[in-house]
Design a protein that fits this description.
It is a single chain. With about 210 residues, the protein is of the alpha+beta class. It has one domain (about 45-205). About 30% of the residues lie in helices and about 25% in strands. Strands 8-7-6-5-4-1-3-2-9 form a nine-stranded antiparallel beta sheet. Strand 7 and strand 8 form a beta hairpin. Helix 2 (about 55-70) crosses helix 3 (about 100-110).
């Protein structure tokens, strides 16, 4: 009798597990999409760019699609433009612009994409504004580089270095936290490619 009860319990556990996995898959397939009326139509000039090295095109497409599923629900928070700029090297730009907060989230997401195992190098660049989240008087209206150091074990922040090599750690976990660093984790470098160099290349838009 005990063996029968144990077997029945195991069957119930397996059944509940399968039902849960099925519901999770359905949630992924049926994620909410914003209405077409909220899709931007006017291009906005900006210099935000993310460069991903050492990744496959399929993995980059999957990561961008998953990011858009997360952030484009009620409205289009981000439309990402993917351009291949070399062998296993890609740029992501934002033809309709993107707020600085979501831009930072994107840098973190592409460093740690869900269900994708890669050793990609992810770096980003932008020009800050004084009213951007996390930005102080020492980092406002400057060109900055965003990245995550190789030794990072927190997974919920990005690091910022200004064009004059002032470094910050920008945290997500306990609200939006900012820490001025004695020295930046990486010295500022100019992006290897600029947006005006890639505008005529073939691209894909994701939203």
């Amino acid at each position: 009798m005990i063996k029968v009860l144990i077997i029945a319990a195991i069957i119930l556990i397996i059944a509940f597990a399968l039902k849960y996995l099925a519901s999770q898959k359905n949630n992924t397939l049926n994620y909410k999409r914003p209405g077409p009326a909220t899709k931007p139509a006017v291009l906005k000039e900006n210099d935000k760019i993310i460069i991903i090295n050492n990744a496959s095109i399929d993995d980059v497409r999957e990561a961008i699609t998953d990011f858009c599923k997360t952030y484009n629900n009620e409205s289009y928070t981000a439309i990402l433009r993917l351009t291949q700029i070399g062998n296993n090297k890609f740029s992501i730009t934002f033809p309709y612009d993107i707020d600085f907060t979501t831009f930072c989230f994107a840098v973190n997401y592409f460093e740690y994409p869900t269900d994708i195992k890669w050793n990609a190098d992810v770096r980003a660049w932008a020009t800050t504004k004084s009213n951007d989240e996390w930005i102080t008087e020492k980092s406002a209206n400057k060109k900055v580089m965003l990245y995550i150091p190789a030794l990072d074990k927190e997974y919920d922040n990005v690091f910022l270095t200004t064009q004059d090599n002032i470094g910050y750690k920008l945290g997500f976990a306990g609200g939006k936290e900012i820490k001025l660093l004695d020295t930046p984790e990486k010295s500022y470098e100019h992006p290897a490619i600029k947006i005006h160099d890639i505008v005529k290349l073939k691209f894909e838009d994701f939203g």
